[in-house]
Design a protein that fits this description.
This protein has eight helices and no strands. The N and C termini lie far apart (50 Å). This is Regulator.
């Protein structure tokens, strides 16, 4: 049984999911999904674990997330007013924006000269990292579990013995023969 979440936690989760989905869009998880706009086919940053990575203390961004959530929603309110939009008041303001407006707002926040640019770019980078490197996961486990970003980049599961081998050489030919003292695990002795 999942622990109950407060309205504030729900608000934060939806906002961070919407931001991550703006950076690496994916398909909706269910028809009424509001955080995921469904702007691209297949899984995006959220399905790849963006929230797990953002909440990983080692990133150094975790402590700033409450500020970023409040701030992006404040910016979304101002943007909605400027664009003469009437977003759903039952949602966080950023989540309530249609995808193209989320994208435009993020473009503005990450533009050169914006006073908060560093925070927004950092948030965007971690959303990308969740998708394209699974930085919050052990690579072998992520590939085994079908991590969508790694699979999209061409990662394939290791051989049965756990070692990664590549049937085609990167340069189209073998660069060197294996040293005779190399162990079965691939380490030089």
């Amino acid at each position: 049984m999942e622990p109950e979440t407060t309205e504030e936690e729900r608000f934060r989760t939806l906002t961070l999911e919407a931001y991550a989905d703006t950076i690496v869009p994916g398909e909706k998880r269910f028809p009424q999904d509001r955080a995921i706009a469904g702007a691209a086919p297949g899984p995006g940053a959220v399905a790849a674990g963006a929230l797990e990575l953002l909440n990983f203390d080692a990133t150094g961004i975790t402590a700033g997330l409450p500020f970023l959530v409040r701030s992006v929603n404040d910016h979304a309110k101002a943007y909605a007013s400027e664009a003469e939009l009437e977003p759903d008041s039952g949602l966080p303001p950023f989540v309530a924006l249609p995808y193209e407006h989320r994208r435009e707002l993020v473009r503005r926040l990450t533009a050169p000269g914006h006073p908060e640019k560093d925070g927004w770019v950092s948030l965007a980078l971690f959303c990308n990292m969740a998708y394209d490197s699974a930085a919050h996961r052990h690579t072998a486990e992520a590939v085994r579990d079908g991590h969508p970003g790694l699979l999209a980049l061409g990662y394939r599961p290791p051989d049965a013995d756990g070692a990664w081998r590549f049937p085609k050489y990167g340069y189209g030919r073998e660069l060197a023969e294996i040293h005779p003292d190399t162990t079965a695990m691939g380490s030089p002795s």
